[in-house]
Amino acid sequence: xxxxxxxRNLGKTYRKATGLFKHKEIIALQQVSFTLQAxxxxxxxxxxxSGKSTLAKLLVGIEQPDQxxxxxxxxxxxxxxxxxxxxxxxxIFQDAARSLNPNQKIAEILHAVLRYSTVLSxxxxxxxxxxTLRLLGLLNEHANYYPHMFSGGQLQRVALARALILDPxxxxxxxxxxxxxxxxxxxxxxxxxxxxxxxxxxxxxxTNQLRLVRHFADQTMxxxxxxxxxxxxxxxxxxxxxHDFSRKLIGSAQY
Amino acid sequence: MQLLDIxxxxxxxxxxxxxxxxxxxxxxxxxxxxxxxxxxxSGSGKSLIAKAIMGVLHQRWHISADRFSxxxxxxxxxxxxxxxxxxxxxxxxxxxxxxxxxDPTAPVGEQLAESIPDHRLEGVSWWQKGFFRRKRAINLLxxxxxxxxxxxxxxxxxxxxxxxxxKISIAMAIAxxxxxxxxxxxxxxxxxxxxxxxxxxxxxxxxxxxxSILLISHELxxxxxxxxxxxxxYCGQLVEAGETAELLKNPxxxxxxxxxxxxxxxxxxxxxxxxxxxxxxxIPTLQHLPIGCRLGPRCPNARRExxxxxxxxxxxxxxxxxxxPIHRGGADE
Lengths: 255, 333
Hints:
Chain A has helices at residues 52-60, 82-85, 96-99, 106-117, 122-135, 152-164, 182-199, 210-216, 234-239, 244-252; strands spanning 5-17, 23-36, 41-45, 67-72, 75-76, 89-92, 170-174, 202-206, 219-224, 227-233. Chain A is an alpha/beta fold. In chain A, a hairpin with a 2-residue loop joins β9 and β10 (227-233). In chain A, α4 packs across α5 (122-135) and α6 (152-164) packs parallel to α7 (182-199). Chain B is α/β, with parallel strands linked by helices. Chain B is built from 11 helices and 13 strands. In chain B, the strands form 2 sheets. An 8-stranded mixed beta sheet of chain B has the order 7-8-9-3-10-11-13-12, with helices on both faces. The interface between A and B is medium-sized, with 30 and 33 residues.
């Protein structure tokens, strides 16, 4: 069986103009390769500026890579085919409250997603929405609510609903669990674990919370200044970090 | 010596829909040299309590308490001017987002120099004051672990990283040698390596100067590692308080229990990718608080009696307010 996602030598450089003719090159990512199987979780840890978010943006196609390639089930993904790839790879933002349009009802937000990427009729869309809402522990009535009427944990569920409504194969969680309160975070983590068991969805978890990584992730990757320092099964990385920096990072979680 | 002793602190806000009681009869006490944690989720009123202690709550809030004493003086019954004097002399606070709580239009050095109180420079001739002030500011920066003081003194807050900003706000707070340092979620904006640094810094001030620290956080695990005693709040009610180690080992209130069990780290037996323990439902908003015990609708052991607010009960140094406390007698010991 081929890998669900395979990333080969991915690299990204940002150019920043420092003068009229001069420019500086900032290397955000360098030589990143990994694979992700269905039903698995890969955690990406690192400090700010280590290229975690850049990696996520490259995968969903917000940014275009300079080097390397991303393969989805053996086929290469192009940025221009966003409409096709966005059904497999979905992305959740850090702050659910700010990533939902306050002027639209939840139903409108979800309809828009379906209208953009599927060919379902209005009635089928309606059905799909109520199915997804129930999957995430929300009620049908919630479709007529505006985002501000939800609490933090419910909003995160709505954001999840928006991501999961297309039945993706990969979900990228960019610090999506950091801002939640502990009891709500436990709920969402449970929900994610349950979904993984049921549907075999793969997660790419970008986070700073190493405790969660340990519980949740099959594989862990430590990024530092755009380079992969460690990549392997979570238990191995935590027990025997090879690099000084990752040792410091992992040690800081246990101080 | 008892530094801070608060009994039945109640904070109320008048809204068009009636009075909202955001903090409901909370007790809090702090001894000299103690590090106390204040744990609660968003909306539990922990920041409000900190602001009430600092006396910086908006005027619309009604503060009432049976006792609100600071070193034996009841702050609420003192005239406003005197109250400000005491608070500004003895209590300092570190705010949540350091780069946003500093003046963006002034260099850091100026702000730091400004926070050094005049009585620290007594006996210095007026023409030397500026020099000594600057010297002291540099000294403070060294104390919080910033070695490159020249670069930092002349930069504006936006030019510095969040970790450095947090260190500077600590430097400002300790400029007056406070007796109590309130740290309101000091590490939420920071990365885990910087977080460890910061807690070491706070601990060293506590050891060297005997500063009491009130550490406010929503993460139980960070509080557990760095405090002697801890108070747990839920929706403005004090749920449980006691010594940290004892409370973690033997939680009496279902909410504390749930908090502990939802952290994988405290659960060595928990298998990989196993379901975490979670309370169902979500935190109620201030407009729709349940009566009685506010955990009621989410509590696994709730019964009919729970519509009455439980009294705070005491077992040695362990306080809890629950009609049906959890008993773990010897079963898992």
